[in-house]
Amino acid sequence: MLLLNLPGSFAMIHIGFATSLTLRAAVELDYETFEWFSFIIAIFSILLCAITLSSYRTTRSRRLLFVAVAFALFGVNALLGNYDVLVLNIGPLGVAAASAILSLIILILFFAALVVKR
């Protein structure tokens, strides 16, 4: 269904698949519910960051440090979509670009956590 919609497919490639699905879910749900889900995702990712940092303090493994930073950026990315207009005063294209850049950095950090030797 998504592949047959050429402008929608181009938007998914440009903005990112996850962002496109998130925006589609926001249209189908009311915006307040979408904000709550994003807030819960942000809180959960910050909690995972804290747990990972706690593990890092005991093991001093660089892998855990990469994962902790990735979780923190994931939380920032979740909050970015909600508070961009009020706080940052940037448009939807700027938010999509920032979200894509943060997603790339998160993936690089998770990859580094897998590849890095102790």
Please give the oligomerization state of what you see. single chain
User: Tell me, what's the shape?
Assistant: elongated
- Provide mean pLDDT, rounded: 77
For the report, how would you describe the main beta sheet? none
In a nutshell, what does this entry contain?
This protein has 118 residues and is mainly α. 86% of the residues lie in helices and 0% in strands.
Written description of the protein model:
The protein has helices spanning 6-15, 17-28, 31-59, 62-88, 92-115. With 118 residues, the protein is mostly helical. The chain has one domain. Helix 4 packs antiparallel against helix 5. It is elongated and about 45 Å long. It starts with 5 loop residues before the first helix and ends with a helix.
Notable features of this structure?
single chain, about 120 residues, mainly alpha, disordered N terminus
Write the layout of secondary structure elements.
Layout: H1 6-15, H2 17-28, H3 31-59, H4 62-88, H5 92-115
